[in-house]
Write a structure and sequence with these properties.
alpha+beta; signal; Lipoprotein
Length: 302
Protein backbone atom coordinates (compact mmCIF):
# COMPACT_ATOMS: atom_id res chain seq x y z
CA UNK A 1 0.00 0.00 0.00
CA UNK A 2 2.77 2.39 1.00
CA UNK A 3 4.68 1.38 -2.06
CA UNK A 4 1.73 2.30 -4.28
CA UNK A 5 1.42 5.73 -2.69
CA UNK A 6 5.14 6.37 -3.16
CA UNK A 7 4.97 5.42 -6.83
CA UNK A 8 1.95 7.72 -7.35
CA UNK A 9 3.74 10.62 -5.69
CA UNK A 10 6.82 10.05 -7.83
CA UNK A 11 4.76 10.03 -11.04
CA UNK A 12 3.00 13.28 -9.98
CA UNK A 13 6.34 14.97 -9.26
CA UNK A 14 7.71 13.94 -12.63
CA UNK A 15 4.63 15.34 -14.42
CA UNK A 16 4.83 18.63 -12.47
CA UNK A 17 8.52 19.01 -13.26
CA UNK A 18 7.83 18.40 -16.95
CA UNK A 19 5.13 21.02 -17.00
CA UNK A 20 7.45 23.58 -15.38
CA UNK A 21 10.21 22.84 -17.87
CA UNK A 22 7.75 23.27 -20.76
CA UNK A 23 6.55 26.56 -19.32
CA UNK A 24 10.15 27.79 -19.03
CA UNK A 25 10.86 26.65 -22.57
CA UNK A 26 7.79 28.49 -23.92
CA UNK A 27 8.76 31.60 -22.00
CA UNK A 28 12.30 31.42 -23.42
CA UNK A 29 10.99 31.02 -26.97
CA UNK A 30 8.60 33.94 -26.56
CA UNK A 31 11.34 36.10 -25.06
CA UNK A 32 13.64 35.21 -27.93
CA UNK A 33 10.99 36.10 -30.50
CA UNK A 34 10.33 39.44 -28.77
CA UNK A 35 14.07 40.20 -28.77
CA UNK A 36 14.32 39.43 -32.47
CA UNK A 37 11.27 41.58 -33.17
CA UNK A 38 12.68 44.51 -31.16
CA UNK A 39 16.02 44.19 -32.95
CA UNK A 40 14.26 44.21 -36.31
CA UNK A 41 12.23 47.30 -35.35
CA UNK A 42 15.33 49.01 -34.04
CA UNK A 43 17.22 48.21 -37.23
CA UNK A 44 14.33 49.45 -39.38
CA UNK A 45 14.05 52.70 -37.36
CA UNK A 46 17.79 53.27 -37.59
CA UNK A 47 17.69 52.71 -41.35
CA UNK A 48 14.80 55.19 -41.70
CA UNK A 49 16.60 57.82 -39.61
CA UNK A 50 19.82 57.37 -41.59
CA UNK A 51 17.91 57.59 -44.88
CA UNK A 52 16.12 60.74 -43.73
CA UNK A 53 19.43 62.27 -42.61
CA UNK A 54 21.04 61.43 -45.96
CA UNK A 55 18.10 62.98 -47.89
CA UNK A 56 18.27 66.11 -45.75
CA UNK A 57 22.03 66.41 -46.36
CA UNK A 58 21.56 66.00 -50.14
CA UNK A 59 18.73 68.57 -50.15
CA UNK A 60 20.88 71.10 -48.29
CA UNK A 61 23.77 70.47 -50.67
CA UNK A 62 21.51 70.96 -53.70
CA UNK A 63 20.16 74.21 -52.23
CA UNK A 64 23.70 75.41 -51.53
CA UNK A 65 24.75 74.56 -55.10
CA UNK A 66 21.76 76.47 -56.56
CA UNK A 67 22.44 79.43 -54.28
CA UNK A 68 26.09 79.40 -55.32
CA UNK A 69 25.19 79.35 -59.04
CA UNK A 70 22.80 82.30 -58.62
CA UNK A 71 25.42 84.24 -56.70
CA UNK A 72 28.01 83.61 -59.43
CA UNK A 73 25.57 84.67 -62.16
CA UNK A 74 24.70 87.92 -60.38
CA UNK A 75 28.35 88.67 -59.64
CA UNK A 76 29.33 88.10 -63.29
CA UNK A 77 26.48 90.29 -64.52
CA UNK A 78 27.28 93.12 -62.11
CA UNK A 79 30.95 93.18 -63.13
CA UNK A 80 29.94 93.69 -66.77
CA UNK A 81 27.46 96.45 -65.92
CA UNK A 82 29.42 98.68 -63.56
CA UNK A 83 31.41 101.36 -65.36
CA UNK A 84 29.62 100.84 -68.68
CA UNK A 85 26.79 102.58 -70.52
CA UNK A 86 23.81 100.79 -72.02
CA UNK A 87 20.89 101.97 -74.13
CA UNK A 88 17.23 100.97 -74.23
CA UNK A 89 15.18 101.63 -77.38
CA UNK A 90 11.76 100.60 -78.70
CA UNK A 91 12.31 98.14 -81.54
CA UNK A 92 8.74 97.11 -82.41
CA UNK A 93 5.35 98.79 -82.10
CA UNK A 94 2.42 96.39 -82.37
CA UNK A 95 4.82 93.95 -84.01
CA UNK A 96 5.99 96.47 -86.66
CA UNK A 97 9.46 97.96 -86.83
CA UNK A 98 9.29 101.08 -84.64
CA UNK A 99 10.76 103.43 -87.26
CA UNK A 100 8.45 102.06 -89.93
CA UNK A 101 5.44 102.41 -87.65
CA UNK A 102 6.31 106.06 -87.06
CA UNK A 103 6.80 106.75 -90.77
CA UNK A 104 3.40 105.20 -91.49
CA UNK A 105 1.80 107.19 -88.62
CA UNK A 106 0.90 103.96 -86.84
CA UNK A 107 2.95 104.91 -83.79
CA UNK A 108 3.38 108.16 -81.82
CA UNK A 109 5.88 110.46 -83.52
CA UNK A 110 7.81 110.83 -80.27
CA UNK A 111 8.11 107.06 -79.73
CA UNK A 112 11.85 106.89 -80.38
CA UNK A 113 12.73 110.23 -78.83
CA UNK A 114 10.78 109.74 -75.62
CA UNK A 115 11.23 105.97 -75.43
CA UNK A 116 15.01 105.85 -75.80
CA UNK A 117 17.03 106.01 -72.58
CA UNK A 118 20.65 105.62 -71.56
CA UNK A 119 21.83 103.82 -68.43
CA UNK A 120 25.26 104.48 -66.94
CA UNK A 121 25.96 101.98 -64.15
CA UNK A 122 28.02 103.92 -61.63
CA UNK A 123 28.38 101.29 -58.89
CA UNK A 124 26.97 98.01 -57.53
CA UNK A 125 23.55 99.48 -56.77
CA UNK A 126 23.12 102.80 -58.62
CA UNK A 127 22.52 103.62 -62.28
CA UNK A 128 22.39 107.05 -63.93
CA UNK A 129 19.26 107.23 -66.09
CA UNK A 130 19.73 109.55 -69.08
CA UNK A 131 16.68 110.72 -71.02
CA UNK A 132 16.51 112.66 -74.28
CA UNK A 133 15.69 116.36 -74.01
CA UNK A 134 16.63 118.76 -71.23
CA UNK A 135 12.99 118.97 -70.14
CA UNK A 136 13.48 115.45 -68.81
CA UNK A 137 16.57 115.75 -66.59
CA UNK A 138 18.87 112.81 -65.90
CA UNK A 139 18.67 111.21 -62.47
CA UNK A 140 20.13 108.43 -60.33
CA UNK A 141 18.08 105.32 -59.58
CA UNK A 142 18.68 102.05 -57.70
CA UNK A 143 18.88 98.75 -59.56
CA UNK A 144 18.82 95.12 -58.51
CA UNK A 145 19.80 91.83 -60.12
CA UNK A 146 18.26 88.38 -59.90
CA UNK A 147 19.75 85.35 -61.63
CA UNK A 148 17.88 86.26 -64.85
CA UNK A 149 16.50 89.80 -64.50
CA UNK A 150 17.91 93.33 -64.33
CA UNK A 151 15.40 95.54 -62.53
CA UNK A 152 15.55 99.33 -62.89
CA UNK A 153 12.45 100.92 -61.37
CA UNK A 154 9.48 99.67 -63.45
CA UNK A 155 11.74 98.13 -66.10
CA UNK A 156 12.26 94.35 -65.88
CA UNK A 157 15.03 93.54 -68.35
CA UNK A 158 15.72 89.82 -68.98
CA UNK A 159 19.34 88.73 -69.29
CA UNK A 160 21.47 85.59 -69.37
CA UNK A 161 25.13 84.70 -68.97
CA UNK A 162 26.66 82.55 -71.71
CA UNK A 163 30.34 81.64 -71.62
CA UNK A 164 30.87 84.41 -69.08
CA UNK A 165 29.31 87.11 -71.31
CA UNK A 166 26.08 88.95 -70.48
CA UNK A 167 23.39 89.25 -73.15
CA UNK A 168 19.88 90.72 -73.04
CA UNK A 169 16.61 89.44 -74.44
CA UNK A 170 13.87 91.71 -75.78
CA UNK A 171 10.69 92.18 -73.76
CA UNK A 172 7.24 93.64 -74.40
CA UNK A 173 5.15 96.16 -72.48
CA UNK A 174 1.64 97.52 -72.97
CA UNK A 175 0.98 101.20 -73.67
CA UNK A 176 -2.63 102.32 -73.99
CA UNK A 177 -3.63 99.05 -75.62
CA UNK A 178 -0.57 98.89 -77.90
CA UNK A 179 2.44 96.61 -77.49
CA UNK A 180 5.98 97.98 -77.46
CA UNK A 181 8.92 95.59 -77.77
CA UNK A 182 12.16 96.88 -76.26
CA UNK A 183 15.83 96.20 -76.93
CA UNK A 184 18.61 96.73 -74.42
CA UNK A 185 22.36 96.50 -74.90
CA UNK A 186 25.74 98.25 -74.80
CA UNK A 187 25.51 101.67 -76.43
CA UNK A 188 28.30 100.89 -78.89
CA UNK A 189 26.42 97.80 -80.10
CA UNK A 190 23.20 99.70 -80.77
CA UNK A 191 24.56 102.98 -82.07
CA UNK A 192 28.20 102.46 -82.93
CA UNK A 193 31.28 103.50 -81.00
CA UNK A 194 31.01 107.28 -81.31
CA UNK A 195 29.30 109.26 -78.57
CA UNK A 196 30.81 112.61 -79.49
CA UNK A 197 28.99 115.72 -80.60
CA UNK A 198 30.13 115.18 -84.16
CA UNK A 199 28.19 111.95 -84.53
CA UNK A 200 27.51 112.28 -88.25
CA UNK A 201 27.08 109.51 -90.79
CA UNK A 202 28.76 110.49 -94.05
CA UNK A 203 27.21 107.49 -95.81
CA UNK A 204 23.68 108.92 -95.51
CA UNK A 205 22.38 110.70 -98.60
CA UNK A 206 20.83 113.81 -97.01
CA UNK A 207 18.98 114.61 -100.24
CA UNK A 208 17.04 111.36 -99.95
CA UNK A 209 16.26 111.01 -96.26
CA UNK A 210 13.40 109.01 -94.87
CA UNK A 211 10.85 110.89 -92.78
CA UNK A 212 12.24 109.25 -89.65
CA UNK A 213 15.83 110.21 -90.48
CA UNK A 214 14.79 113.81 -91.01
CA UNK A 215 12.95 113.88 -87.69
CA UNK A 216 15.93 112.38 -85.89
CA UNK A 217 18.22 115.03 -87.38
CA UNK A 218 15.91 117.87 -86.31
CA UNK A 219 15.53 116.28 -82.87
CA UNK A 220 19.31 116.19 -82.45
CA UNK A 221 19.53 119.90 -83.33
CA UNK A 222 16.74 120.83 -80.91
CA UNK A 223 18.31 118.88 -78.06
CA UNK A 224 21.63 120.59 -78.71
CA UNK A 225 19.91 124.00 -78.63
CA UNK A 226 18.20 123.10 -75.35
CA UNK A 227 21.60 122.30 -73.87
CA UNK A 228 22.84 125.70 -75.07
CA UNK A 229 20.15 127.67 -73.24
CA UNK A 230 17.07 127.52 -75.43
CA UNK A 231 13.93 127.07 -73.34
CA UNK A 232 13.09 123.41 -73.57
CA UNK A 233 9.66 121.94 -74.24
CA UNK A 234 8.14 118.59 -75.22
CA UNK A 235 7.73 118.62 -78.97
CA UNK A 236 6.23 116.71 -81.85
CA UNK A 237 7.47 116.85 -85.43
CA UNK A 238 5.52 116.63 -88.67
CA UNK A 239 6.79 116.45 -92.26
CA UNK A 240 5.55 118.70 -95.06
CA UNK A 241 6.60 119.10 -98.68
CA UNK A 242 6.21 122.41 -100.52
CA UNK A 243 8.09 124.44 -103.08
CA UNK A 244 10.43 121.52 -103.68
CA UNK A 245 11.61 121.38 -100.05
CA UNK A 246 11.04 118.87 -97.28
CA UNK A 247 9.97 120.81 -94.16
CA UNK A 248 9.73 119.75 -90.54
CA UNK A 249 7.18 121.62 -88.43
CA UNK A 250 7.90 121.77 -84.68
CA UNK A 251 4.88 121.97 -82.40
CA UNK A 252 4.41 121.68 -78.64
CA UNK A 253 3.28 118.13 -77.92
CA UNK A 254 0.98 118.93 -74.98
CA UNK A 255 -0.24 122.49 -75.57
CA UNK A 256 -2.34 123.99 -78.34
CA UNK A 257 -0.02 126.79 -79.46
CA UNK A 258 1.22 128.15 -82.77
CA UNK A 259 4.06 126.47 -84.62
CA UNK A 260 7.24 126.95 -82.60
CA UNK A 261 9.86 126.36 -85.27
CA UNK A 262 10.42 125.17 -88.84
CA UNK A 263 13.32 123.27 -90.45
CA UNK A 264 13.92 122.21 -94.03
CA UNK A 265 16.43 120.42 -96.26
CA UNK A 266 17.90 122.70 -98.92
CA UNK A 267 18.96 121.74 -102.45
CA UNK A 268 22.45 120.85 -101.20
CA UNK A 269 21.13 118.40 -98.62
CA UNK A 270 21.87 120.67 -95.64
CA UNK A 271 19.51 121.16 -92.70
CA UNK A 272 18.25 124.72 -92.34
CA UNK A 273 16.26 126.41 -89.59
CA UNK A 274 13.96 129.36 -90.08
CA UNK A 275 15.31 132.71 -88.93
CA UNK A 276 12.74 135.30 -87.79
CA UNK A 277 15.24 137.79 -86.42
CA UNK A 278 14.26 140.19 -89.22
CA UNK A 279 10.56 139.36 -89.09
CA UNK A 280 8.50 137.88 -91.92
CA UNK A 281 8.92 136.53 -94.49
CA UNK A 282 11.21 134.08 -92.71
CA UNK A 283 14.63 133.32 -94.05
CA UNK A 284 16.53 130.09 -93.48
CA UNK A 285 20.04 129.49 -92.14
CA UNK A 286 22.11 126.29 -92.27
CA UNK A 287 22.42 124.66 -88.82
CA UNK A 288 23.90 121.31 -89.85
CA UNK A 289 25.70 120.25 -93.02
CA UNK A 290 26.14 116.56 -92.20
CA UNK A 291 23.54 114.09 -91.03
CA UNK A 292 23.26 114.15 -87.20
CA UNK A 293 26.23 116.53 -86.87
CA UNK A 294 25.41 119.25 -84.31
CA UNK A 295 28.78 120.98 -84.21
CA UNK A 296 27.47 123.99 -86.19
CA UNK A 297 24.30 124.45 -84.15
CA UNK A 298 23.46 127.85 -82.68
CA UNK A 299 20.34 129.19 -80.96
CA UNK A 300 18.14 131.30 -83.20
CA UNK A 301 16.47 134.44 -81.84
CA UNK A 302 13.03 133.38 -83.08
Amino acid sequence: MKKGLFVGSLVASILLLGACQKSDTDTTVKSTKQTISIEKKSSSTSSTVNSSTDDSTISKKQKNDVSGDESNTISTARKQLVGNRFTMVPSLYDGIDANQAMEESKAPQNLMHDGMAGFNFTNDSTVRVELAGTYRPDYDAPYTLTNNMLIIEHRNIPYSINNGIISFDSWTTDSNGHSITWSFGPEKDLYGNSSSENNSDTNVDTKNLTSQQLKEWVGAVLDKQFSMGRSSFPYKLSIENKDGYAYVRVNHSTQQVDTIDMFRINSSGQLEEQDLSNGYPATYKVVSSKFMDTSEVTVMNN
